[in-house]
Specification:
By secondary structure, the chain is an all-beta fold. It has strands at 3-7, 11-13, 18-25, 33-39, 46-52, 58-60, 68-72, 78-83, 92-98, 114-115, 119-124.
């Protein structure tokens, strides 16, 4: 049973930083990619960042590029999302997802094989 567990969510003020982690367990084979998503109340879930473990290529949503950084632990069991210069509009539940099949769109939540339960990030002004 593959499980993804997010942690690191908290309440911070505008301009603050947080580092989210997504810990993966139960893998019997090497997984190739992971994405971070977020969903604010009343809004659709959106892709935030993506990393391909095989190439180390990363993709970011326009609204977070330059402020957020996705990175991986060497063993690929944990992926981090460093979030700097946080804004109130970053307030959302943040989720991770793993194993995007070849040809899948990185910001499509249901395209991933495994999905986590989320961690809350609240940014106050």
């Amino acid at each position: 049973q593959v499980q993804l567990v997010e942690s690191g969510g908290d309440s911070v003020q505008t301009g603050g930083s947080l580092r989210l982690s997504c810990a993966a367990s139960g893998y019997t084979e090497t997984h190739g990619s992971m994405g971070w998503f977020r969903q604010a109340p009343g809004r659709e879930r959106e892709g935030v960042a993506y990393i391909d473990f095989r190439t180390s290529n990363t993709i970011y949503a326009d609204g977070v590029r330059g402020r957020f950084t996705i990175s991986q632990e060497n063993a690929k069991a944990t992926v981090w999302l460093q979030m700097n210069s946080l804004k109130p509009e970053d307030t959302a539940m943040y989720y991770c997802a793993a194993d995007l099949p070849e040809g899948g769109w990185w910001s499509s939540w249901y395209a991933y094989r495994y999905r986590g339960q989320g961690t809350q990030v609240t940014v106050s002004s």
